[in-house]
Amino acid sequence: MISKETISLVRDRTDIVAVISETVPSLKKRGRRFLGLCPFHKEKTPSFNVNADTGLYHCFGCKESGDAIRFLEKIEGYAFAEAVRALAERAGIPIEEERGAAPTEAERHKRERAALYAAMQMAATWYEEQLVEHPLAPMAIAELGRRELTPADAAVKDFRVGYAPAGWEGLAAFLKKQGVSPAVGESVGLLVPRSSGSGYYDRFRHRLMFAVADAQGRVVAFSGRALPPPPGEDEQRDAPRDPPPKYINSPESPIYVKGATLFGLWQARHAIRQEDRAILVEGNFDVVSLHARGVTNVVAPLGTAFTIDQAKLLYRYTRNLTLLFDGDTAGRKAVTAALEPSEQVELDAEVAVLPNGTDPDEFVRSKASAGTGGAEALKHLMGQARGVREYLLDVEFDVAFNPTNSRELSARIDRVCDIIAGEKDPFRRTMLKARADDALGRLDLVRFARDAIEPARRKFALAARTGRVSVGPRPYEARVRPRPPGQEERKAIVGAILEFPELLDDSSVRGDLELLEGDAARIVAAVAKCTRVTASGEKRLDVTELLAQMNPAIQAFASARLAAPALETLDEARLLVAANSKKLRETTVAQENRDAVREQHRVVGDWEAEVELVKQAEALSLGRHGLSPR
Ligand SMILES: [Zn+2]
Question: 105-138, pLDDT tens digit by residue?
Fold first, then answer.
């Protein structure tokens, strides 16, 4: 805990203009305030104001505002106390922590973590030194050279690239000399206890090392890339061994959660904010070498699929994400995996596809040597990026498959329907549907689909006529509508009406009743029929009669609601009906979009039916935007 007095002292002594100028170089004095380009949103005309007198900043563009502490929280991802400490250090204010007689649990915890950070920091420096001094370091430098990088490059220094020497105890001995306890080394995953029970050895041996920084720039982990075996090593072995894994990463530790850390975010943070976009690539090396080519808003997940926590981390800096992967299976998988985290966090994600088998760095270098300017070529590629769902849809249609295989075709159509239905934005959904329709037409899948479905249908119709099966929904339809969508919403509406029958007098509620069907519609009809007007003019529901009219299944639901109402007021009920009707309309639209894709391939060739479908789709779209009654 930092005392209130210290916090206000820090606020008073902080020169907010100096603090912000470091991130906003465009900040200029204008009258009594300072004006510059906002670091929180993209703009060409300055609307970011800083007032040295009040110690506050405010942006008229994005409405972001606060004091210096908040600025550091937002811009560096600091926690409140971290921001206060950073400012206190600048202003030369000793931090007075409020404390009791004994150190608190939190303080001990903090001191332990400080020891872990310090050990990582020492290791990073030592690896960097080894890259210069160690006799085998040229092998690591050669690996950098394959990417046209040298230890002198600024990017290589920024990422604290180093060399973990061959041998078992280099780092262990160094840490010991520095007074770092082996338990600390083990806790951050630098050292591994010997199975013999005495002593520790280095986890990273003969590897090119990348330091992984957290959002505050502290080294929290390492990622070590394998190098060719050192000379003489091969002859010592009788039996050939498996090659070592290409990358070894630090295990998770009290200061490192891999799913919540992004490689390169610390180095990329200002560029991400300036470009208002982050680029996600697969590997650490891609991040470093793209930095060296001047593309600096790049990050990579650390050997995992993109996670929600990583998406949240990026969201602090931008809402726009470009996934830069190649078009092979692994790349497609990575895109698929990134869809959900991005959408959950509301990052607007796009996919830019590299030529097959090319990594981003190769792409940039090959274009650079072809004289077209590597970074420019990458920009061009990114300009052609598609939305993630567009990309996934295209993959379903582009990748070679056998469309005469009805099972595969049907699985693909199902996936396409899911991709379309999963899009929440109605306009984008419409665009996706149009894209799917185009692709279906282009590939002549329609013909294949019809061929695949028609025989099954005819067979079924015949069987039904000859009495061998009961006539129910045809199997094709049954698969299209496995169960009525929107059941929950209908239940909520009906429940509200059961509790407040007077809702049926409300004209807006009446308009929503057309959305009900089946049992839900039946209950509402019964409620209307069983409502009596009392002598005093009040409306009352004849509960006994109402329940008597219902079949057992819905009776249970209705009596439960009538016995234990879930809603308090008529207004609450009205809002609930409105909200659920809205959802129901959207669900219905999604279902109709699915059906439309399927319908399209059933009616192709039938011009009038196609025109009718297009009209329906148009009416749907208009209705959705409230342009004409549905
Ligand atoms: Zn702004």
Answer: 767 788 888 899 999 999 999 999 999 999 999 9
State both tokens at 14: 């902080």
φ, ψ of residue 37 to 5 degrees: the values are: -80, 130
pLDDT at residue 475 tops 80: no
Find the 39 Cα to ligand 1 centroid distance in Å: 6
Give distance in angstroms: CA of 274 to centre of ligand 1. 11
3-state DSSP assignment of residue 166? coil
Q: What is the pTM of this model?
A: 0.60
Taking 80 as the threshold, does the pLDDT of residue 459 lie above it? no
Distance 269 CA to ligand 1 centre (A): 16
Q: For residue 518, count other CB atoms closer than 10 A to its CB.
A: 11
Same domain, 115 and 205: yes
Q: 265: CA distance to ligand 1 center in Å?
A: 21
Q: Is 423 within the bounds of a domain?
A: no
Whole-number Å distance, alpha carbon 25 to ligand 1 midpoint, is: 15
Find the 90 Cα to ligand 1 centroid distance in Å. Answer: 25
How many angstroms does the Cα of residue 340 sit away from the middle of ligand 1? 28
Confidence band for 534, pLDDT divided at 50, 70 and 90? confident
Looking at residue 96, its pLDDT comes to: 64
Query: Which segments within 491-550 are labelled E, that is strand?
Result: 531-533, 539-541
- Are 117 and 82 found together in one domain? no
Strand 191-193 to 162-164 pairing:
unpaired
CATH code of 28's domain: 3.90.580.10
- Tell me the CA–centroid distance for residue 58 and ligand 1, in Å: 8
Give the end of a domain, one of 65, 91, 117. 91
On whether both 607 and 497 belong to a single domain, the answer is yes
150 and 141 Cβ atoms separated by less than 8 Å: yes
